[in-house]
Amino acid sequence: MNIVLLCKSWNHKKALEILTALRQQSLQIRGIVALASITTKNSFSDFVRKTYEQNHHLPATIAEYAQQHQIEMVMVQDLNSDASVAALKRMETDILLLGGVPIIRANVLAVPKICTLNVHMGLLPKFRGMNVAEWSIFCGEPVGVTVHQVDPGVDTGAILYREIIEVSDCANIEMMRAKVSRQQHQILARCTRLFIEKKFVPEPQKKEGGKQYYMMHEKLRKVVEQRLSKGYIQDSLNRNDNHTDKE
Amino acid sequence: MIALRTAARQLRDFILLRFYRPSHFRIGVQDYFDWRPPLSALLSNSIHLHAAMAWLCRAQDANGDGGVSARYRLSKDWASSYPETTGYIIPTFFNYAKLAEDKKYHERALRMADWLLAVQLANGAFPAHDISAPSQPRVFNTGPALLGLLRAFRETQNEIYLLAAERAGDWLAAIQEASGAWTKFEYHQRPHAYHAVVDWPLLELFSITKKLPYRDAAVKNLDWVLSQQQPNGWFDHCGFKDDAAPFLHTIAYTINGLLEAGALLQPDQPANSVYVQAALRASEALLHRFEIRDFMAGQFDRNWQAPATYSCLTGNAQTAINWLRLYEFTNEARFLNGALKLNDYVKSTQDLKSHNPGIRGGIKGSQPIWGRYIHYAYPNWAAKFFVDALMLEDRLVHELYRREGLA
To answer: Is residue B42 within 8 Å of B347, Cβ to Cβ?
Structure first.
């Protein structure tokens, strides 16, 4: 089974966490296709970013990881480019995993022989899009993660698994995101193994089952911060609608 | 040769638009480089609100007739007073008078209403354009004037405003076509979906007088507007002309009219109104386009594609109002979220420091100022909708914070 990770080469904490979690699940990675650092029009921004990367050894880290574990790594200028497609084809990708990447187009999604999997920081189908952990709290709903197959829509692919994450111990948004982020990579790795072992039946989503959310405005984030600071108690009604984990 | 012609045109524009004036030059440079303050540096709503109200007061004083000057133009300073927009500026002034607890704005609103009485045509209609143009009766322009007169009546109980409003309402009902549309006495002799914004004051008139012809005319037109809606939420005939990509301004009018009419017809549960539902479908499409691009284009086509690279600031403020009202009706916070961002954007374009009284506190037609909608000018309706949007935002956010124990 050829598993390939699609990620960015900078700010790639997510990708490293996924790679580590996959190893813990005894899953071999066939390769990594990473987005090379973007050159922006603003040379000052470029300078700041490059200095940051150098000071934090960021560009080297994921490459070092790949080298250390003898994983093939290909850098591309655009994850949706022909070069990206060619690299995935050459690696004979069966399952493509997404590690914190921008929207992936149909040409890339068509390459994996089995499917593309992603972990989403919200409970699908209800909360699609961005900042969904924050939106869940704003709407008085549980915070959680969903592992799903990726299709050309935004978070509309078939659902493999959902899990609610307790955030009542998180005093603010930063702590909550850190907690959910830590857990979601473990969940993705575990689900990938179970999926390979055919222990999941993906359940298609209904389009009308949810809404797409967008970047939350500071004035609404204030409400979320307030609720977290008071110890956010999640709605228990939605706790028993997870997909069955047959493990 | 081409380069020479371009240079000649630019020189002509430079002179005609008086970019040699420091205040005009500054705007040109700011917009060319898109120099706007970052969101973190934006001032409180009340400062922006006050600046826009001060600009509207200067616009009212510009001609000395009680009406509000249509716009400040880089080419020719203040324009003549404009009946249509003076009409819907009246409720804005009454509302601000209450918010600021300052009678000055109340008195100004009444001066506007009195001016409307003076410019009303013999048949009850209100004229198109500003009063420097020949006085042609116009369906659309009569709606906002009606709104102003009705608010003046509610504030004062002076029958003179109600009688004028009834004359306007009678004219609208009399010239309506069997289909429910208005074609005669209209821009390009075409029916427009944005006439929904005429239906709203007709329903207000009905709520005061209980005379059914006003309600019937409004509902007939609203149903015609609904018949123009496509499955993707788009309204045919929602532009000035039947052009490929109407301005956001007229799209927002259509949505606004449906929302307010729906709320008047079903005050207990506006979210269940078919008109509010229609407005919701169009607003969903707009919200998605705005959020994925992080920019609100000034024009859209019937597939909600946005060819424009400029923003229609009036349309942005109107859309913010529509989304805030939708949040109020449906409790859908994604609309509140979008409205907050739109208001921030318009705030970031407002010049609070200019020495030019026509620019300071005003809102441009387009961002950048040479965009297609009311280019090189500051229309009074942009400032009016901006004020309305900020006042509504403040009220709704305050209510939300109060519920959360944050206020």
So the answer is: yes
- The β-bridge relationship of strands A31-35 and A72-76 is parallel
For the residues of B58-97, what is the DSSP string, one character each? HHHHTTSSSS-BSEEETTTEE--B-HHHHHHHHHHHHHHH
- CATH classification of the domain holding A96: 3.40.50.170
Nearest to B334 among A211, A219, A227 (CB): A211
**A227 and B405: CB-CB below 8 Å?**
no
- The SS3 of residue A129 is strand
Residues B378 and B72: their CA atoms lie apart, in Å, by 5
Considering only CB atoms, A217 lies closest to which of B337, B404, B406, namely: B337
Domain boundaries, chain B: 18-404
Alpha-carbon gap, residue B325 to B321, rounded angstroms = 6
Residue of A nearest to B287 (CA): A214
- Kindly state whether residues A184 and A92 are assigned to the same domain: no
What is the three-class DSSP state of B172? helix
Closest CB from A214, A218, A222 relative to B334 = A214
Euclidean distance between CA atoms B387 and A18, whole angstroms: 49
Q: With an 8 Å Cβ cutoff, are B340 and A220 in contact? A: yes
Which residues of chain B make contact with A42, given a CB cutoff of 8 A? none
Topology (CATH level 3) of domain B18-404? Glycosyltransferase (1.50.10)
Q: d(Cα A105, Cα A107) in Å, to the nearest integer?
A: 6
Q: What is the 8-class DSSP label of residue B169?
A: H
A101 in the same domain as A175: no
Chain B residue numbers with beta carbons less than 8 Å from the beta carbon of A127 are none
Tally of domains within chain A = 2
pLDDT in tens, chain B (407 residues): 778 888 888 788 888 888 899 999 999 999 999 999 988 889 999 999 999 999 999 999 999 999 999 999 999 999 999 999 999 999 999 999 999 999 999 999 999 999 999 999 999 999 987 777 767 899 999 999 999 999 999 999 999 999 999 999 999 999 999 999 999 888 778 889 999 999 999 999 999 999 999 999 999 999 999 999 999 999 999 988 877 799 999 999 999 999 999 999 999 999 999 999 999 999 999 999 999 999 999 999 999 999 889 999 999 999 999 999 999 999 999 999 999 999 999 999 999 999 999 999 999 999 999 999 999 999 999 999 999 999 999 999 999 999 999 98
